[in-house]
Every structure is written in structure tokens, then in C-alpha cells.
Design a protein that fits this description.
Length: about 210
């Protein structure tokens, strides 16, 4: 009986939906994040084009737009590739392929850091060209929206780094390695999807 009870120890994490309550909590959190980013994106769209002074995001009244589409397209590609490596990390964790999981987690972390490097470069460039939070409406909405997204990417990098470091312990991530990496993957994919929306709204759709 003791053996049977031990074998079913993880059952207390289950809910009536059949989903682990820890994963359900992550889904609830991501749902609230959808509302948060939705409000930021909606605010940007509402005030888009209302700036009366430059710099402007796209070409406006003979003034060249400040956005560098090729550079940001590259950083977007980097972030999208991190989703691919995250999928590989989840697969490795779920199938007991420790080396694959660790290398994929490391690759995802490095790609996330690279994306943050691109964002830092962009922010510094905009600052040198006179765009900041107080310059105009575009600057205020742009820096708040993309800044919060960058913060989320940074949190994700820390989250994945903690999993990678834990995987080097003698016991690794334990019997629930697949669950832990998959749950982290939900967060990471969400961050990637949000950036696709931001990239499309801000960079690809002219004022």
C-alpha cells in the first residue's frame, strides 16, 4: 500500500480539469499578461500618429522615420529561433535526453540575451537621435510597451537559467523535468508571440 501511495504522490497536483494545477496557474498568469499587453498595444494604436513633433516611427512630412526595420527584423528572427530551441529543450526533457535538453536551454538563453542586446542597441540609438519617454506620444507608448516586453524576456532568461543550473545537480530536475521545462516553455512562447504582435503593429504597419 505504501508503494502504491508513493507511486501516486504527484496526483495532488491535479485539478478537475485534468491539468496540473501548477500549469493551470501558469495559464492564468499568461491570461492576465494578455490583458496587460493588450492594453499597452491598444494604447499605442489609439495614439498612433498623434505625435506633433519628431522623431517619428516612419517617414513623415519629409522626415525620415527612426525605426530600423532590417535590424529589428534580425532581432525578431533571433527571438523566433529561440522558440525552436525551446521546443527542442522540452522534447529533450520529456524523453530523458539530458544533453539535448541542456544544450537547447543554453541556446534559448543565449538567443534571448542576443535579443535583449539588439533592444539595448535600439534604445541607445533612439536616445542619441533625441527620442525618449518624454519626447512625444510615440516615444512614451513605444518605450513603455517594448520596455515591458524586454523585461519579460529578461525574466524568461533568468527562469530558464535557473532550470539549466538546476539540471546540473546530482538529481537533475527530478522526475518532473519534462513538466518544469514545458511550463517554462509556455512562458517563453508567450513572450515570443507578444513580440510578433508588437513587431507587426509598430514596425510593419506605417502611421
Amino acid at each position: 500500500m505504501a508503494h502504491a501511495t508513493a507511486g501516486h504522490a504527484p496526483a495532488h497536483h491535479r485539478t478537475n480539469t485534468g491539468t496540473d494545477n501548477r500549469k493551470l496557474l501558469m495559464w492564468f498568469f499568461l491570461g492576465s499578461e494578455c490583458l496587460f499587453f493588450g492594453s499597452l498595444i491598444a494604447t499605442y494604436l489609439i495614439f498612433k500618429g498623434d505625435s506633433v513633433v519628431g522623431p517619428f516611427p516612419h517617414d513623415h512630412a519629409g522626415e525620415k522615420g527612426i525605426l530600423d526595420i532590417p535590424v529589428t527584423s534580425t532581432s525578431t528572427f533571433v527571438l523566433l529561433m529561440s522558440s525552436v530551441t525551446m521546443v527542442l529543450a522540452v522534447y529533450g526533457a520529456q524523453h530523458g535526453l539530458q544533453k539535448m535538453m541542456k544544450l537547447s536551454l543554453l541556446a534559448t538563453i543565449l538567443l534571448g540575451i542576443t535579443f535583449l542586446g539588439f533592444q539595448t542597441y535600439e534604445f541607445r540609438t533612439f536616445g542619441h537621435e533625441g527620442l525618449n519617454l518624454g519626447t512625444n506620444i510615440f516615444g512614451a507608448t513605444f518605450f513603455v510597451m517594448t520596455g515591458f516586453h524586454g523585461t519579460h524576456v529578461g525574466v524568461g532568461v533568468i527562469y530558464l537559467s535557473s532550470l539549466l543550473l538546476a539540471s546540473f545537480r546530482r538529481s537533475g530536475l527530478g522526475p518532473e523535468a519534462g513538466f518544469h521545462v514545458e511550463t517554462a516553455g509556455l512562458y517563453w512562447h508567450f513572450v515570443d508571440i507578444v513580440w510578433i504582435v508588437i513587431f507587426t503593429v509598430v514596425y510593419l504597419i506605417p502611421t
